[in-house]
Amino acid sequence: MSAEFSILSATLLFLFVIDPFGNIPILLSVMKGVPQKRQYQIVVRDGLIGLIILVCFLFFGAEFLALLHLETESISIAGGVVLFVIALKMIFPSPYAKDAGPVMEPFIVPISIPMLAGPSTLATLLVMVKSYPNDQQDLLISVSAAWGTSVVILAMAPLLNRVLKEKGLAALERLMGMLLLMMSVQMLVNGIRSLFTHTLASL
C-alpha cells in the first residue's frame, strides 16, 4: 500500500531534484553579457516552456509507464536509486560540473531543459505519477509550486550570488543534497517493503 500523498513533501522533493541553487552558477555563466532586464525575460520565457514539459509528463506519464509494463515497486526502487546518485553528486560535486559551454543567449537549453525539466525531474515525476495515480491534481499543485519557487530563485540569481557568494551557494546545495539523500533512501525502503509484502502475500 502506498503512503498517503503529501503536497508539501512532493513539492520539497521536486524542489530538491530541480536544485535551483546548484544551477545558479551555470545560469550566471550562460547569461554573461545579457542585460539584467533581458535576463528576467529569458528566465520567465524558458520557465514557462519547462512548466509545459512537466505538465505533459504529469498527465501522460501513466500511459508511458503502462506502455512499458512497469510496476509501482520497480519504479519506486529505480527512482530511489536515481535520486540517491543525484544527492551524492550534490553533496560531492565534480570540479568540472559547472562548465556551461559556449556563452550565448539561452533558449530552452539549459533553463527549460535540463534545469527545470531535466531527466532526473521527469523521472521523479513519472515515479510519483505511478505511485499516486489518483492524486494528479495534488501532483500538479506540487510541481507548479516547486517550478514557481525555482523560477523565482533563478530570476534572483545575480542578487543571490552577490549575497551568498560561491561558498554560500555551495553550502545550500549540499544541504539540499543531504535532504534529498534521506528522501531517496525512504523511497528505496518503501519500494523494497512493498515488494516483499506483495511477494509474501502471493505465497
Automatic annotation (TrEMBL):
Compartments where found: Cell membrane
The entry's keywords: Cell membrane, Membrane, Transmembrane, Transmembrane helix
GO CC terms in record: plasma membrane
The organism's place on the tree of life at top rank: Bacteria
UniProt keyword Coiled coil present: no
InterPro entries, sorted: Multi_antbiot-R_MarC
Record field: transmembrane: 6-28, 48-68, 74-92, 104-127, 139-163, 175-196
Membrane topology per record: Multi-pass membrane protein
Family classification: Belongs to the UPF0056 (MarC) family.
Name assigned to this protein: UPF0056 membrane protein
Source species of the chain: Marinomonas hwangdonensis
